[in-house]
């Protein structure tokens, strides 16, 4: 899609617009985190809907075949002591690489180079990124990170190529991909993607879901799920976003149940879960997703800070500060003792973009702060 409706400052308003998809989709659906103002959200959703319908028109009767994600047959065994499981350092980061079709100068190329060079990006075992939507910028980011993290999954929802299995509601005709990828220091034994069936608002037009990767850490298997849950979008009706997230977490839990992963093996779930730690929904999320809370949470109090993060403050000045990004373990499985999530209040060298004759300078690399998790 080459065009989109802009406001006075086009790169600073709206939601991510689709990358080009080569095949039709029989039923339109879902894209990214929270959308800004209600009016523009509706306008951009209309653009995405039109793109999806146009993509479906040439072969509306040909529904794409979905590959059913395989399930493991290993019997469940008692959880291993914490000291018997690998102690990994895991980073989750919403990188805010929206498509330049709608955001032509949000510094995507600059940030795709700067993120892998940032201090918080160094020395991790696993990195889970979200909102890696822009094809060119996200490919550059993954390429720039390859020396540190030589093993990775593709970006989920972009195609079925490079995956061992694809499940859920994937369609190649959906306007936007899912924006999630897993990077690792350790070899990845298996890569699966699962696209959520449930979505509302702008998310309806993306292949958002979760990545499932099995790592070989010195001969021991560690399971990593990277995800980006439903955003709280004005295009959703009252309460619909939370209800949709609940169904997404339940779908993820059912997927992992079917794997019959031994309790002695870690199952890490990381990403922008779009659930604030300070709300009642957080406990519901843990229950719906079958997750255990972290032993501690330190660092900056908000991973999405509309007061102090220069990009978030520009994009969402009236929105609340929230703590939305998490690295957790599946309940009943091994995990390192003292598992702690730390919100890193990242600050970058100033970078400047121009829009309609005006320059804007930022001192952050995304509208979210990174979260790094590890045990003691």
UniProtKB/TrEMBL annotation:
* Stretches with biased composition (Basic residues): 27-36
> ATP-binding: present as a keyword of the record?
no
Region (Disordered), start-end ranges: 1-37
Q: Which domain of life is it from?
A: Bacteria
Task: Please state what class of enzyme this protein is.
Answer: hydrolase
**One GO term describing the cellular component:** extracellular region
Q: Which UniProt keywords apply?
A: Hydrolase, Signal
Ranges for the Endonuclease/exonuclease/phosphatase domain? 91-368
Q: Gene3D superfamilies under this entry?
A: Endonuclease/exonuclease/phosphatase
A Pfam short name? Exo_endo_phos
> Which EC number(s) are documented for this chain?
3.1.4.3
The entry lists its GO molecular-function terms as: phosphatidylcholine phospholipase C activity; sphingomyelin phosphodiesterase activity
SUPFAM superfamilies, A to Z: DNase I-like
Family according to the record: Belongs to the neutral sphingomyelinase family.
Q: What is this protein called?
A: Phospholipase C
Q: Which organism is it from?
A: Streptomyces rubrolavendulae
């Amino acid at each position: 899609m080459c065009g989109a409706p802009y406001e006075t400052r086009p790169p600073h308003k709206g939601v991510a617009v689709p990358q080009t998809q080569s095949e039709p989709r029989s039923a339109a659906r879902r894209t990214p985190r929270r959308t800004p103002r209600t009016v523009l959200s509706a306008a951009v959703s209309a653009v995405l809907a039109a793109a999806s319908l146009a993509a479906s028109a040439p072969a509306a009767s040909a529904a794409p075949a979905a590959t059913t994600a395989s399930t493991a047959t290993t019997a469940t065994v008692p959880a291993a002591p914490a000291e018997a499981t690998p102690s990994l350092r895991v980073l989750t980061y919403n990188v805010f690489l929206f498509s330049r079709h709608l955001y032509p100068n949000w510094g995507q190329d600059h940030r795709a180079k700067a993120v892998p060079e940032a201090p918080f990006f160094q020395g991790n075992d696993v990195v889970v990124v979200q909102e890696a939507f822009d094809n060119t910028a996200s490919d550059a980011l993954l390429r720039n990170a390859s020396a540190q993290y030589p093993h990775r999954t593709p970006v989920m929802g972009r195609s079925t190529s490079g995956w061992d299995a694809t499940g859920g509601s994937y369609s190649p005709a959906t306007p936007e991909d899912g924006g999630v990828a897993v990077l690792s220091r350790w070899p990845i034994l298996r890569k699966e993607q699962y696209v959520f069936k449930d979505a509302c608002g702008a998310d309806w037009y993306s292949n958002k879901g979760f990545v499932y990767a099995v790592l070989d850490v010195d001969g021991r298997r560690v399971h990593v799920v990277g995800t980006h849950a439903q955003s709280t979008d004005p295009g959703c009706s009252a309460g619909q976003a939370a209800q949709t997230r609940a169904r997404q977490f339940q779908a993820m839990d059912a997927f992992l149940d079917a794997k019959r992963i031994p309790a002695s093996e870690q199952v890490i779930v990381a990403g922008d879960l779009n659930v604030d730690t300070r709300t009642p929904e957080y406990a519901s999320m843990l229950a719906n997703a079958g997750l255990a809370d972290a032993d501690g949470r330190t660092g900056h109090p908000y991973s999405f800070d509309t007061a102090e993060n220069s990009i978030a403050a520009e994009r969402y000045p009236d929105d609340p500060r929230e703590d939305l990004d998490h690295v957790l373990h599946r309940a009943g499985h091994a995990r390192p003792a003292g598992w702690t999530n730390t919100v890193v209040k990242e600050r970058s060298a100033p970078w400047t973009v121009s829009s309609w004759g005006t320059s804007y300078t930022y001192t952050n690399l995304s509208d979210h702060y990174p979260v790094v998790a590890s045990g003691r």
